[in-house]
Amino acid sequence: MFLLFEADPHTDQTTTHWNVHRIHGYLTVEPVDSHIDRYGNNRNSALLGWLMVFVFLTSLSLLTLFRQARMLYTEWSNHAADEYLDWFREFNQFCDLDEERSSGGFSG
């Protein structure tokens, strides 16, 4: 036997299909909707829980990835700044030597 209950149009409830069968002489009604299991539990709540776990783990891994990228960028920029400072010091030393040569202060 198969029953169809139409929902009240003034509410947000949807149409639900129910299986009715006899177990040990008693009529038993079970929802057929895919999101409700045979015990009347809503399966969507379990899916929502797994979705929340997935979103949490994804955001945690992305946060870790961004932190790692920021550390690598900081390390790279510090290394680049050190190289620039070394080049600037060498350039200043070269300019100082060039000034000494042109002023005649350098004997050679």
Can you tell me about this structure?
By secondary structure, the protein is an alpha+beta fold. The chain has two domains: 1-41, no CATH class; 56-103. It is built from one helix and three strands, in the order βββα. It has a three-stranded antiparallel beta sheet with strand order 1-2-3, with no helix packed on it. The longest helix is centred in the last third of the chain and has 61 residues, at 43-103. Keywords: Membrane, Transmembrane, Transmembrane helix.
Topology record:
Layout: E1 2-5, E2 16-23, E3 26-31, H1 43-103
Antiparallel strand pairs: 1-2, 2-3
Give the key terms.
1 helix; 6674_t:CDS:1; 2 domains; three-stranded antiparallel beta sheet; membrane; 108 residues; alpha+beta
Give a quick summary of the entry:
The chain is an alpha+beta fold and 108 residues long. Helix content is 56%, strand content 17%. It has a three-stranded antiparallel sheet, with no helix packed on it.
Order of neighbouring strands in the sheet with most strands: 1-2-3
Number of strands: 3
Helicity, as a percent range = 55-70%
Query: What are the secondary-structure elements, in order, as H or E?
Result: EEEH
> Which range does the strand content fall in?
15-25%
